[in-house]
Amino acid sequence: MPCLIASLGFFFPRFAMVLMVIFSDYLGRAYDTMLWPLLGFLFAPYTTLAYAFSINRHGSVDGLYLALVVVAVLFDLGILGGGSHSAKKMACK
Question: Residue 46 and residue 58: Cα distance in Å, rounded?
Fold first, then answer.
């Protein structure tokens, strides 16, 4: 089951977050309030999942877990920036 959730998290991060909230306390253990996971759900789902993984697995964000969170941030920014860039390209044609 954890491998299935991890696979879903890569391709459908928001769906994986909903499943985690419904069926486990994985996000609740990583965050003190539900405000940050909610904002992460809307704006940065990969970063939210990477941070939760780092806190639940290691207890802090340092070393390789920090690298994982940084890659997740870059991935989130690339998804957001790439969408607006291609939308501008389509509008110019």
Answer: 18
